[in-house]
Amino acid sequence: MSSHLRIALDLAATGVPTLPLRAGKMPFGNCRTCADNACGGRPNMKTPGPCACPYPCHGWAAATTDPDVINSSTWAQAWRGAAAVAYHPGGAGLTVVDLDNAGAIAWARANLPATRTVPTTRGEHWLYQGIMQSANAVRPDVDIKSSMQYARWLGPGSGSIAALPDVVRALTVKDSAPARPTVVTVPSQAGGGACPHRTPTYLDRGIAMAEQRITEARSGVHATVYRTFLAVLSTHGRCGCLTDAHTARLFTAAQSKGETARHCIDAWTNAQTRLGL
């Protein structure tokens, strides 16, 4: 019996649904019968669905506590090629706050209740008792893994498991509409001089470039948003040419990357303060 299979059976005995992972921390692909969800089950892996495939198909939805399934001949090939064991946190009544680096861990220590922690390759998993919606990138380098998601099993960790707090639940809540910040209006140049940007085209091109910079961010979104706001305000914040429509475009771009309205307002205000606006 492989070590991965033994771990899976031990976890299943404690009520933790498990499944094998292949290299790259990825679940095994669907079998031929279930390819492209032809079986009608688990469409796009959003719901468990009616499929009762005996193979470890459909990612997180394959996780099970049934030892006969885990140790079956149909799962044997997957276990032989498995690189790790995963589990379905929501199925075990858990939520995992996945902290991807030291900065994310520092944020968690300052803002989240202490709970059981499990070291990972680059950071830590913080485990809470309770189920919630899973979501990626709720903050820079922070993911939530609970319902309809899997997490890699890296050991039992240390510390007591705390109840899932509201502050973690709130991380997945996004405002329904972009906030409309109060735009700093600076009097026109002395002597009634024209705006140094001369034409609206210059400003519109700058806002479009700022939107693109935010939406193309692959990591560190919060820092990218702040730096972009700072750049826009340093160029356009003193001549009075910025309008609510311009700032709403920037806020919308930021919120499309997972930033909340509150984060947008804070970043905008901090940039104004730094520039003395």
Which residue ranges are poorly predicted, with pLDDT under 50 across at least 5 consecutive positions? 42-49, 175-193
Report the span from N to C terminus.
67 Å
Structural class: alpha+beta
Count of alpha/pi helices: 9
How would a textbook summarize the main sheet?
Answer: 6 strands, mixed
Beta strands, count: 10
Mean pLDDT: 82
- What is the H/E string? HEEHHEEHEEEEEEHHHHH
Rg value: 24 Å
Question: Quaternary arrangement of the chains shown?
Answer: single chain
* Percentage of residues assigned to helices: 25-40%
Structural summary, described in words:
With 277 residues, this protein is α+β, with helices and mostly antiparallel strands. Helices cover 35% and strands 14% of the residues. The protein has 9 helices and 10 strands. The strands form 2 sheets. Strands 4, 5, 6, 7, 8 and 10 form a 6-stranded mixed sheet that branches. A 4-stranded antiparallel sheet has the order 2-1-3-9. The longest helix is centred in the last third of the chain and has 16 residues, at 200-215. The chain is elongated and about 70 Å long. Mean pLDDT is 82; it is low at 42-49 and 175-193.
